[in-house]
Amino acid sequence: MAKGSLLSSLKVARFLFRKPKTLRYPFEKKEPALRYRGFHLNDWDTCTGCGNCADICPNTAIEMVEVLDLEVGPGEKNERPKLDYGRCCFCGLCIDICPPGSLRLSRDYFHTHFNTDTFVFVPKDEKSDEETFLPAENYSILKASLTHRKRDYEGFSSDLSYALFEPERVPMPEVPPAERTLSFVEQVIGYDREQAVREAERCLECRLCEEACPAHMKISDYIGAIYNGEPEESLRKIYEDNPIPSICGRVCMKHCEDACSLRLRGEPLAIRWLKRYVADTIQDFKSTLEQQPGEPTGKKVAVIGAGPGGLSVAYFLRLMGDDVVVFDELSGGGGVIRIGPPRYRLPLASIEKDADHVASLGVEFRYNTKVGTDVRFQELLDEYDAVYLGIGLTVSRSTRVENADKCRLALDFLRKNKTESMSKVTEEVIVIGGGNVAMDVAREALRLQHMQYPGEKVVTRMVSLEDWDEMPATEEEIEETREEAVEFNPAWGPKKVLLDDDGNVSGLLCMKVKSVFDDEGKFAPTFFEDQEMVLKGTTIIEAIGQGSDFSFIPEDMLTKLRFNEMRKVSVDENGMTSLPGIFAGGDIVNTNLDAVTAIADAKIASEGIHKWMTRSR
Amino acid sequence: MRELELYFGPQHLGMVGNLSITLTVEGDRVVNAAMNPGYLHRGFEKLMEQRSWIKNFPMVCRMNILDPDSMEMIYAMAVEKLAGIEVPERAHYIRSIYLELARAGSHLFGLWAYSNMLGFDTVAQWAMYHRDLILDRFEELTGGRVYHIYIWPGGVRRDFPEGFEDRLVSTLHSIGGCVPDYDATFFNNRLFADRARGIGVVTREDALAMGAVGQVLRATGVDDDVRKIDPYAAYDKVPWDVHTSEDGDAYSRVWIVRNEMIESVHMIFKLLDAMPKGEVYNRIPNPFKWRIPEGETYVRCESSRGELGLYLVSDGGDKPYRAHFRTPSYTHGLTILEKALKGASISDVGNIMMSLYVVAPEIDR
């Protein structure tokens, strides 16, 4: 400590001759830092209206408001955040939780107004609000306000490495391609408890998925229960809307994951695998669910087809107290799901597990019973109060090219592998088609080749009209098929099946595809007739689509059954066809052609059936 | 002589902050002083029980306006301890640099308050200006000037922006270059020394008995600093000194503040040199589902005013079950101030209070 002097402070006098440090605002302006946390910006094109910003706001300064003229697709809500700058503390939590990264803070911070209502506003950015966000030459600091802002003036913005959500999913353990093609071992191993909880934790609870799910399952709730370590509670939540979790947990088309807000800058939540985790973890559905059939109503319903739709309709009706009998030509439940998806994707035991629970509620299953041959359709109409058609698409279409009769059809091939002994395949297989069924067929054929010709060189070739970007199969399925070294020939169409001297299949003559769809988007393939190619192959399987078989319905009734312009069975809002008392759902009604939409149809129809049977006459 | 009760509250020029003291005076002498805490009560600790772990972050810093960053730090430390969250090495260094920068900023703010109250307007303006330069760096680093909301559990919210280190160093150099001016006009100025020497003496016995911390304790010759005795962040990674003094009066305390500011700047330079590269943030669990296992913890750090403690309890839920802060101003502003004011002149009431570095919002949480 130095000795003080009274005079020492006179040194300050020199500051009298220096320029003042104070900025003369607004003539001298201070530029805010690049990360400045000022007023909000929101890119309306990428904002999904998920509402995470409103949920995390510590001051409830953000409210989601409905924007009526906003067009929204799946995974979006027509809501946008509204800010109240009387409450906002500019902490930026909303920025770090925003999954699409549309919400940002700008470097603007001026707003002066006599009316406090102007401090409440719905932020946009220069893309959708050119009137407010002005280029530098039209901007004046003297007019700066929430309605007079500077363009390209972004401040604190989202950075994925510091986001409050986890963009990457917990990797799903799988059997590697080289190993899995040698047998029908289930490819996906499934999450264990720790992995499932970790994956469930990623859910932001915005519920965009629930809107997108055809059956509107309570996804957020059942994922939350998994996170809480309560798979039992999770199963109960699932069964409120979906009675086939073991099946859906494996083969669902997961519309939910396409809507997940985490997908925008990362990977969507593994909703399907989490459902599978619940279904696999709980051994005994009956004791967990403790479900009882409803008060007996004395009404009887016949359900044709034990597929996802048939099982669901039976389940929902039984819970309402109706007596249900399910007819199916196969030896067990599942319908097309039983024969279609190969066992490496959907083992039989998983189908039995779901079907057994429905049966345990007192639903009667008559398997190996084909309606039309083993039991007449008219008998069902006479004996039962209502009939549900859940017959699905069970007949494979053929290309009908020359010698096509020497080919095998996809569903027959798949069905035989499941119901009888495994098909014999040759070393070179050609699969025609680019959809999910074609992928299943190719991958199943490949496994059979490896099993029947161990150690030998075998090849499965695919040929599809569609090019890579138009192929109707899911990306995931295509990727996995490629991993397994199936040879792809996209944009080639079959012209003729080639035969050798003995009349056996020897290859496929193909021609180059010009376009698959016409200008209106209708399926109308055109070819370059002069560009040809021969694919070698001694087994050819056609997997170009399926149709349904209505031959069990008597002719006079069938003429009264109305179809819509998509050649689907027309049903009303209760799921009833044009024939009174006959209801329908699933692949013969909707164009999604998947299990979860069949469940959604079944739910509507079961309520419709119940209402129709108990109506006052 | 007749005793008189005198209300000394925010309306008084010598009172900085929303605090009030009821003085019993006899002439110019204070016979008794009774603090009236509760003036600024905002119920932070109770509010914290109703907000999720993450939502408390933008709030805890508001408990101490002059030094919000230690509040962020201590809450992050407690949450990390309860939840078992690791912090990357680089984040430790950034935290220390950031906290020392905050300490210097807080001390400059305190210097403004103190010198302004004593009538040293020039020094007050300098201090405010220099604090503003530090706020510019904070703005660049965190996006905020006063409330930074920068330290999170798991590390810090963003890494240094491009070129930040150079600008930080040059800012600190330009402030450091003014130390001789500060010394000449304030710290070594007889006018100030005469106002501060022998005023508001706190003896070592009183300081220890009444729970004094920080400069108040160090001014009595006790070598106590949490950064040394219980190091956190990167304080054990570089050498630095604890400054003490013997007299226990207002002058000693302010002198220590001066030395600490200089020490902080030196420490920042050393930390910048030693700082490793790498990650600065380990992702915390999804804030909407984040629950912290049942447990309780007490953590402490050295705020600009001394030892700051937080007792945090979790019942396994998504919010704190209880949060209790042990703030330096609580003891300094209540028991120690009441005792130090006895026998003082009325004109020294503000002087003593400010030299004890009392900040009202810390008392009323």
Task: Characterise this structure.
The complex is a heterodimer of chains A (617) and B (365). With 617 residues, chain A is of the alpha/beta class. Chain A has 20 helices and 22 strands. In chain A, strands 10-9-8-11-22 form a 5-stranded parallel β-sheet, with helices on both faces. A 5-stranded parallel β-sheet of chain A has the order 13-20-14-15-16. In chain A, helix 4 (193-200) crosses helix 6 (219-227), helix 6 packs antiparallel against helix 7 (231-239) and helix 7 (231-239) crosses helix 10 (271-281). The model of chain A has no long low-confidence stretch (mean pLDDT 89). Chain A is 27% helix and 17% strand. The longest helix of chain A has 19 residues, at 595-613. By secondary structure, chain B is α+β, with helices and mostly antiparallel strands. Chain B has one domain (42-326): Orthogonal Bundle (Cytochrome-c3 Hydrogenase, chain B), CATH 1.10.645. In chain B, 47% of the residues lie in helices and 13% in strands. Chain B has helices spanning 44-48, 57-60, 68-83, 89-118, 121-142, 164-176, 179-187, 190-196, 204-209, 214-218, 226-229, 250-274, 328-341, 349-355, 360-363, and strands at residues 3-8, 21-26, 29-35, 151-152, 155-156, 295-303, 306-314, 322-326. In chain B, helix 5 (121-142) runs antiparallel to helix 6 (164-176). The longest helix of chain B is centred in the first third of the chain and has 30 residues, at 89-118. The radius of gyration of chain B is 20 Å and the shape is globular. The two termini of chain B are 39 Å apart. Chain A binds chain B through residues 1-6, 8-9, 11-12, 15, 21, 32-37, 52, 55-56, 58-59, 89-93, 96-97, 105, 155-156, 159, 161-166, 201-205, 224, 227, and chain B through 51, 54-59, 122, 129, 136, 139-144, 147, 149, 157-158, 161, 181, 183-186, 188-193, 255, 281, 283-289.
